[in-house]
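Input.
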Amino acid sequence: MLLAFIIFGFFGMLQLKSSFFPLQESEIISINVAYPGAAPQEIEEGVVFKIEDNLKGLIGIDRVTSTSRENGGSITVEVESGQDINFMLAEVKNAVDRMPNFPTGMEPLVVAKQERIR
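Output.
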């Protein structure tokens, strides 16, 4: 009986799937703006406010926060619980792409979901 427990325990251990840091689906999308040589006010008025206005009509967004600093800025979009993050990422990218023009000298925007490990 003891030998059977050891053998089945060994084979069970080999088939056990575990992870030290399990991945959990993120609910945050970040938009990073790089505009070398620009002042924070210029980034805020020329880019951040326009992106925030485009995001206002999207359903499934819980909160939008932004930070403007010299040479760049960032916008954080928090998605409501239960929403598909990949669908919302596509919606946010479409909203950013609807902007007619960006200031000259600005680098392309980076829109990505933040991976969260718990």
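The chain has one domain: 24-117.
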